[in-house]
Each structure stands twice: as structure tokens, then as C-alpha cells.
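Box 4.2: Ligand-aware structure prediction
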Amino acid sequence: MPKVLISDALSERAVDIFRERGIEVDYKPGMKADELVSVIGNYDGLAIRSATKVTEAVLEKAGGLKVIGRAGIGVDNVDVPAATKKGVVVMNTPFGNSITTAEHAISMMMALARQIPEANASTHAGKWEKNRFMGVELFGKVLGVIGCGNIGSIVIDRAQGLKMKVIGFDPFLTEERAQDIGIEKVELDELLARADFITLHTPLTDSTRNILNAENIAKTKPGVRIVNCARGGLIDEAALKAALESGHVAGAALDVFEVEPAKENALFGMENVVVTPHLGAATSEAQENVALQVAEQMADYLLTGAISNAVNVASVSAEDAPKLKPYMQLAEYLGSMLGQLTVEGIGQVTVELEGHAATLNSKPILAAALAGLMKPISDSVNMVNAPSFARQRDIAVSLTAHDRDCDYQTLVRVTTTDGSQTRTVAGTLFGGRAPRLVEVRGISMEADFGATMLYVRNRDEPGFIGKLGSTLGEAGINIASFYLGRTEKGGVALSLVDIDGTVEDAVLQRIRALPGVIRAELLTF
Ligand SMILES: NC(=O)c1ccc[n+]([C@@H]2O[C@H](COP(=O)([O-])OP(=O)(O)OC[C@H]3O[C@@H](n4cnc5c(N)ncnc54)[C@H](O)[C@@H]3O)[C@@H](O)[C@H]2O)c1
Ligand SMILES: O=C(O)CC[C@@H](O)C(=O)O
């Protein structure tokens, strides 16, 4: 039974879902970093919100971890490259809290426009300062939205309902989409110059870090009000403070900060600054959505191999997962066979799919073939990290799904080139499920994959099979199955021998010394 740790405060519905799906779960919100490092090795899955930091140190101890599920959007608290390297799927729930966060941004904008937090505090204090507070209307004002994705688009929709004029900057926004959502697409400088209110809805990346720095803040309209419910780090806080003090920026509403949790911050206590402690996603609806979603997604992956909303590996739908599983097994066996037979570094890998295989989601099949191929290089390689392993090793990878008649109903062929050698193996699924080898280096043969197999290439000469059988027999090695093929009479023959147990090195040397042997290797699957 897979085991999952929930280390942040997720709706307890997530616990119910895991248990209903037959997954053991430990609910330990608020777990300290060192405790996480010491227990993570016991789990197959880790479900988090934003408080848990999944660092390289955590991942180093995460021996059997298969999946990290983020109940929310940003995965900036997860070292995704380290997780990928370790072969751990990282998934998020990209839509579950979008409405809630967009509503928070709108609330913050309104609170800012009407100084509601200060007026609230003053009135509670019995001051009745009716003449102290003078707000501004949103009606007719220009709202500049930086980042027009899921949340930005909902903010745009709500702001249009408030009769604001919305302009947007997003390098990935097409003109068609801008028209669909009813905004004017502008460049950043134009947005800065025209907006009365600016709201940020981008992820924190190298291109968005400090997107509102001193230089860009100086380009904004005097009296602008700024809202950030996306990520700390998008605004240079020191530059914002200076602009608030000079009066160039009339106010700011911030849900996120450069350093979180933030007990102290130079902006705290300023009258024209409204702050909340990263509450963008904090509604019961959003928390229920993301907790349910993350638990379902993680359970799907752990139980069936289906992958949704992963940020570091291709998706596999719940419908596709059972169909793909035997293909991934076949591809891994084929890749593994070639990986074990490769002597020099692999320069190129080609995966070809024919028949039914050509109609499937091909990326997981390719990833499985690469994982098998690179297993001899690294024990930690799996289908999550195999494509990046290949890239790091400058292995050129190509995938072709052939739309042509083939001798088998379904076929996967893997070809590698190392130095001057090109090797091809191909396999099919017997009965639609059981992986079966049908071709090795151009030689047709039908072989099931056994756990330990002897691979012998030799000149096709009479008496060879007898000598091979006797050598194994004398060493007390039992043959489970013997598969044969050859290029042509008197050409090159290939024996694949499924054996019980293993073949000691001394026996392998004796086989290599048999007359006519070109190559003999022990393969494990
Ligand atoms: N405060 C919270 O509690 C809370 C809750 C949910 C999400 N968030 C954050 O909100 C942000 C937006 O989330 P989303 O779901 O809308 O993401 P999204 O991926 O749907 O949208 C992000 C948009 O930013 C755009 N973008 C990327 N680089 C850009 C750049 N250099 N300049 C301008 N635009 C750029 C992208 O094209 C995309 O359209 C994320 O940072 C997310 O982590 C915060
Ligand atoms: O879990 C949270 O409270 C924060 C969520 C938010 O930052 C997100 O990226 O989804």
C-alpha cells in the first residue's frame, strides 16, 4: 500500500480521499525542515501547500518518493530540477484556487481605493474620522494587468464588471486571446505609463523578478496604486517604499513578500500600504478544491500511473494509463537490452512506433525506452528524469509514429547508435499485454523477456547449440527457455537463453571462448 505524508495544512478532505483510495496517509501539518528530512524516506508521496520547502537536502533522503503534490499553483517552494533528477513527479493544481485569488486581488484593490483597513481600525478605536478618509472610484479607471493567465483573466473579467478600462501586458498573450477577453494588449512601458491601478499575476521567473523595480516604478503614472497577489520578488520592496514615501505611488496592496513568512518588513506599518499574510488562496472553497484535486491526482499516479498537471513530465490520462503500461514495460525492456549491449557512449536513440502503438500517447513510451537504456549508467534513472538525463549526455533522441502497414498488430522499435555501431531491437505485445521480443539487429526471433538472459551471437555453425547447452549444464545452470534466430544459413546466429539463477563470470568467459562466438553477455530485466 503506498504511503503519503501531508506536511502542510491541507483540507482534511485530502486525508479522506487518500484513505478511500487505499493509500496510507500521515497528516502532519507544520512539520519542521529537519523532521521532514528524517522521515521523507518512508513515503511514496508528499502533499504540500506553500509552507513546506522541498529542498535538495529533503530530496536526497527521499529514497522511495515518487510524487510531490502541491495543493495550489506555485511550485517555487519545490526544487523542481532536483526532483526531476531524482525521478520524482511534481504536480500542482493549476485552477483550484484561481477564482479565490482573483477575488482577493479585487478585494485588495478596493480596500486600497477606499482605505478600508485604516478606516476600519480608526472606527473600531472610536475615532469616527469621517473627514480623514477620501477614496478614489474604480469606475472608468485604467487597470494594468501584468500576466494575463488563469488568475489575470479572472481579474480582468471582474474589473470589467466594475467598469474599469483594462489593459494587459503578457508576452505570451495572443491578439486573438486579448480580443476574446476584451482587453487592449500593450507593451510594459505603455502599461506603466497609462495605468491608474497595476495588478501583478505572473509567476516569479528570471524575466519577472523585480519587474516593478525603481526604473519601472519611475515610469508609472503619478498616484498609481499597485496590487501584488502573485509572488513576492515581482516588486523591489525597497524601491516601492521609496516611491510610496515620495508620494509617486499612492498606495500598494500586497499579499506576498520577498521573504515569507514575514514577521518584519520595511513596508509594514505604512499608512498607504494594505497587507495580508499570503491569503490569496485562503477560502474554504479553494482549499477544498485544491486538497481534493491534489489527493486524487497523487492517488491516480501512485495507483495507476496516470499523470495530470505535472510540471516536470508529460501527462498520461487516467484512460490512457492502463493502455500505456504494457507498452512502457516493453519499451523499457527494449531500451534496457540495448543499454546493456552498448559499450561506447550512445550518440543517438530512435524510437519507432507502428500499428496500434502509433496511435498512443507516445511521450511516456519514449521516456520508458530512455529509462531502460540509461539504467546501466545510473540506478536512479526513471521515466521522469530519463529525457533530461539524455539531454545532459548530449544523446540525440527522436520519435516516429509510422502510419504504415506492419507485420505485427503493434510494434515498438528502438535503435541506438554508439560510435560506429547501430543496434536495433523491436518488440510487440503478445495477447495485447505481454512484452515479446521479435527482432534483434535485423534477426527475426520470438522471445519472452526473462529476468536473467544470456545473449550469444556466433557464427552459424553445426554443433554450436549443443556446446553452449553443455557448458551451461556443466556449470549447473538450468535453461528455462531457448530462443534462436539467424541472419541466413551459415551467417550470424543469435541465441537468447532464459536461465534460472545467474551465470558466474568464469562460465561467461568459457562461453565467450567457445568456437564461433562473436559476443556473449548476461542481460537482466
Ligand atoms: N497569493 C496567492 O495565494 C496565490 C494563489 C494562487 C496563485 N498565485 C500566484 O499567482 C500567479 C499567477 O497564477 P496563474 O494561475 O494565473 O498562472 P498562469 O500561468 O495561468 O498565468 C501566468 C501568466 O503570466 C504570464 N507571464 C509569464 N512571464 C511573463 C512576463 N515576463 N511578463 C508578463 N507576463 C508574463 C504568462 O504568459 C501567463 O499568462 C503565480 O505566481 C501564482 O503562483 C498566488
Ligand atoms: O497554499 C497557499 O496558501 C498559497 C497558494 C498560492 O500561493 C499558490 O501558488 O497556489
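In the box above, the bound molecule is (2R)-2-hydroxypentanedioic acid. The longest helix spans residues 320-341.
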